[in-house]
Amino acid sequence: MDGIPENTTGQFLINYEQCLTESLIAIQWRYMKEEFSELIKYLDGKFTQIDERFDDVDERFNGVDERFNSVDERLNDVENEVKSLREDFDDLQSSVDAYAKKADTYFQEMVALSHKVNQ
User: Do 80 and 56 share a structural domain?
Assistant: First the structure.
């Protein structure tokens, strides 16, 4: 580099290196931007699919509260019926016990009467 001052050549090389670096960064940015836009489109599509799935799940769960209320009502009806059956069974058991006691008393009286007649 005859005839060009040394600091000018150094400055030129620094400027040239900066231009190359900036150009590479710009190219890389453009390439990354294109790749990111593809990635963003892809991910957006996937998230849209997930949103649609959640919408389907939400629709399925919309009727669950009503179904649980219906099940609660039926369970209460069954509990009331079981309670009523227990009360009826207790009444029946008391009646059978009373009848058995009367029958036992009757048979004891018959046995006693039979002994009196035999004597």
Answer: no
Q: Does residue 44 lie in a domain region?
A: yes
Per-residue pLDDT tens digits for 48-65: 888 888 888 888 888 788
Measured CA angle at 17 (ends 12, 19), to 5 deg: 95
Residue 5 and residue 12 in contact, taking contact as beta carbons nearer than 8 Å:
no
Residue 67 included in any domain: no
Residues 90 and 58 in one domain: no
What distance in Å separates the CA atoms of residue 81 and residue 69, rounded to the nearest whole number?
18
Residues whose CB falls within 8 Å of the CB of residue 9, separated by 6 or more in sequence, listed in order: 1
Q: What is the pTM (predicted TM-score) of this model? A: 0.43
Evaluate whether 20 touches 12 at the Cβ level (below 8 Å).
no
* Rounded Cα distance, 46 and 4, in Å: 60
What does the alpha-carbon distance between residue 8 and residue 17 come to, in Å, rounded to a whole number? 14
